[in-house]
């Protein structure tokens, strides 16, 4: 078996950018009993094969039992390692996931707020233009100063400003009645 660099693939993983050797070493550090159990299982299976070729049935049965025990120990190591690793990583993952969700929600809320603000500013501008007679749909060339797009808005604005003193531009006054400036 060759240990040259060509014998060991070093293609980086698609998700992490680490080579196969780096990934294997990281996994060995995370759960060291699993590769050891795998090697013990393979060793017992190889020894059982050797004993079977020699015709030593008693020793063959012993090595097959060792293989079964090694497989069980490896599976137990996988389960225990997954449980321990999962409980420690899940805490970090939960915190990270919570933070990402908070940031995403804050971003969505900020965008929604900015959209609502732009709409309100546009409506405010349209209302101000309608009140001052600068509406884009005003037919100035014919001498007609009334707006065609918002004919009833001017009447409503003049009624609302004269009927409710101290009301703000957004049609709601303060609950206690005064003007917003007081």
Protein topology:
Layout lengths: L19 H11 L2 H22 L2 H76 L18 H13 L19
Helix pairs in contact: 2-3
Task: Give a quick summary of the entry.
It contains four helices and no strands.
Structure description:
By secondary structure, the chain is mainly alpha-helical. It is built from four helices and no strands. It is rod-shaped, with a radius of gyration of 39 Å. The model is unreliable at 149-156 and 158-164 (pLDDT under 50).
Q: Give the overall pLDDT as a whole number.
A: 76
* Portion of residues within helices: 55-70%
Q: What's the count of strands?
A: 0
Distance between the termini: 89 Å
- Sheet-strand content, in percent, reads under 5%
Total helical segments: 4
Contiguous uncertain segments of 5+ residues = 149-156, 158-164
List keywords for this structure.
mainly alpha, single chain
